[in-house]
Each structure stands twice: as structure tokens, then as C-alpha cells.
Amino acid sequence: SSSYPSSEIIHPSSDLDEDVLIKVDNVSKKFCRDFKKSLWYGLKDTASDIFRPGARNGADHDSVSLRPSEFWANQDISFEVKRGECLGLIGHNGAGKTTLLKMLNGLIKPDFGSIEMHGKVGALIALGAGFNPILTGRENVYVNGSILGLSKKKIDAKIDEIVEFAEVEDSIDAPVRTYSSGMQVRLGFAVAAVLVQPDVLLLDEVLAVGDMAFTIKCLNTVRQLTERSAVVFVSHNVQFVSQFCSHIMLLKNGGIETYTDDVSEGIEAYLSAGEQSIELSGSREAEFKDET
Predict the structure, then answer these.
(1) Helix (H, G, I), strand (E, B) or coil at 83
(2) Could you please report the per-residue DSSP string of 242-269?
(3) Cα(230)–Cα(236) distance, rounded to whole angstroms?
(4) How far is CA 184 from the centre of its chain?
């Protein structure tokens, strides 16, 4: 059987509950650690798709063996998110969170399973990553708006609100290469939140950069968006997760370890999964004392 069976990203259909904006069904994705082997595997799989169209249809995750140097980044992921819900996607580094978000955003294609996304999707995965460093902040806003399919008239109507929200009034006409990382994140968030007004919002730890006051402003905006959107929120900050999320999905080694609507239970599972012995180096003269 083919090593890359049927997978797809499906656009809105009439047979799905209109309140369900995200539907993920048995999605899996694998990668190759060896760059040369990954190129060779990709060439073979592309040739198979060209010369044997449809050969991979009907295959499933269990029928495929990993080739040398391959590993599962995600395995058999299934969930739904309705309008007004916020799914907290948690797990330690390497658990597969960002890979899943990239598949939801259409940046990469799943090897197995299907993804249905309804409505306009706004992804805050790498804020500022698409900015041209030579162009000014204002020019980048217009470029990004055009890429999102918005007319110049619509961007004109929102540009002042974006600049005010990002708090970059003094720098908006300066080249983005002169911006700090925090300024780029602020402008990127403002473009996505003010300009897009998405039905589906994907957040990947993008608020870790920047001062606390702006982070709180962004979180309040996210809370407002959650009232009319379906949100997937990736964060290591359990305080943010507990405040904003209605469901928790804990990933471990690419698979679902816990999936619950009890946020406290999900966070407890996440913290328990991270328990390990810690050794401190140094003179050992300093001690940490529990005063409780």
C-alpha cells in the first residue's frame, strides 16, 4: 500500500452542524528527521501520486509502516470546536501542537484524515513573520491586507485603528527592520485581530513577546473574539489557558493524552506529565524552602 494515504482539507459543507466551525477527523502527520531521505521520500511519493492516482485512497494510519528516519508528529487526532468555544491545546515542547495548528491553517497537508474549516480563518502563529523588513509598517499593513483579500478602501477604514491598537504611532512609517520583536508582534496581532475579524482563530503562543500591559490588551481582544469565533489556543501559560479555554486537549508524543471539558482536570494532567526530578548545579549552599 502507498505510504501517503488519503487526506484532505475540506471547505464548508451543508451536512455539518453550522455551529461547528472546526472538525478534525483522525488526522495524522509524519516527518523525516534526515533531510536527504526526506527529499527522496518526497520524490517517490510525488511520483506515486502522478503515475498511480488514487492508489492511496482508502488506506489508513494503521496500514502504513514508518520508513527509516520517519516519525509521527501527530497521530489519530480528532476533535470539534463550535462557535463560542475555545480549545486549549497544551503539551510540552515537541508534543505536536504547532504541527497541528499548521495543518488547521492549511500550511501543511495531513497524511491521513480530514480537516473541515468553516468561515474566515485567522492564524496568529508567527506574528510579523510575513512582514517585509524593507517596507514601512504602514506599507506592510496594506500588503498583508491585500493578501487576505481586502480592498484598499477597507484597509483605509481600519488603518488608524490598527496603528492605535499596536501602539506604534511614532514608528508606523519607519521600516519594519527597525522594529523590535515586540513591536512586530504588536503590529502583527493588530492586523490579524482588527483587519481579519475571523470566524476561526488560531493562536500559537504569540503573546509571549511584549510587555504585560499589551498582553492583557490582546487577551481581552481574544476574549471578545471568542464570543463569536471558534478559537484554538496554544500556550504554556496555564493561567491564560484556565481563563480563556472551555475545553482542554493535552498532546503527548503527537497523540491525544487527555481531551476534556474540565479545564482544571486538563491542566492538572499537563502539570503531572511534566513532573520530574531536578538536580541543581553549583556550590549547593543555596536552598529553596517551602514556607507553607
Answers:
(1) coil
(2) HHH-SEEEEEETTEEEEEES-HHHHHHH
(3) 20
(4) 18
Tell me the pLDDT band of 59, cut-offs 50, 70 and 90: low
Grid cell in block for residue 266: 486538563
Q: Which three cell numbers stand for residue 149?
A: 483579500
Residue type at position 268? E
Where do runs of H (alpha helix) occur along the chain? 35-51, 97-104, 137-147, 152-166, 181-190, 212-226, 238-244, 263-273
CB atoms within 10 A of CB 146: 12
Cα distance between residue 271 and residue 238, in whole Å: 9
Say how far apart CA 241 and CA 164 lie, in whole Å: 27
Residue 85 phi, psi (nearest 5): -105, 155
The label of the residue with cell 520530574 reads 276
Please, which residues bridge with residue 122 across strands? 201
Q: Quick one: CA dihedral 26, 231, 195, 216, positive or negative?
A: negative
pTM of the model: 0.76
Q: What is the pLDDT of residues 73-93, one digit of tens each?
A: 999 999 999 999 999 999 998
In the chain, the N- to C-terminal Cα span, in Å, equals 60
